[in-house]
Design brief:
By secondary structure, the protein is an all-alpha fold. It is 59% helix and 0% strand. The chain has two domains: 53 residues, no CATH class; 57 residues. It has seven helices and no strands.
């Protein structure tokens, strides 16, 4: 939001988007694109900023998800560790990814999505591998 507002108020001749609400939001969304739709992010920036202005400059609060990570469950950790031990000393993060791509394993462990490489590395580190 700060970047969006800063760009909006910056009406210098070198800034073609300065002072134009929608264009500035679109430009800011493109600049900070986090893997989501820039159109949706642009809309959220405008919505959050309107709320910020209307609420006497109270910043919007982002609520964290209440969903617990499957890795916090000791039974899941035990099952994943058992799988990694069955592979041997050369087990790697990709082995976790492949294991959790199987729908039956996801259902059994209560994981409702396949994990990526970064998440697999994080899980292995938290399990002591």
């Amino acid at each position: 939001m700060a970047r969006f507002l800063w760009t909006y108020v910056n009406t210098q001749p070198g800034n073609p988007a300065g002072g134009q609400w929608s264009k500035v939001a679109d430009k800011t969304a493109r600049d900070i694109h986090f893997g989501q739709s820039t159109r949706a992010l642009s809309h959220r920036l405008r919505k959050w900023t309107h709320a910020y202005i209307e609420d006497q400059n109270q910043l919007p609060i982002r609520r964290k998800s209440q969903r617990a990570s499957p890795i916090s469950d000791k039974a899941v950790v035990a099952e994943l560790s058992l799988h990694l031990r069955s592979i041997g000393k050369y087990a790697c993060a990709q082995d976790l990814i492949d294991f959790l791509k199987v729908t039956e394993n996801q259902v059994h462990l209560g994981v409702s999505w396949p994990i990526g490489l970064a998440m697999a590395h994080h899980w292995m580190k938290s399990m002591g591998w």
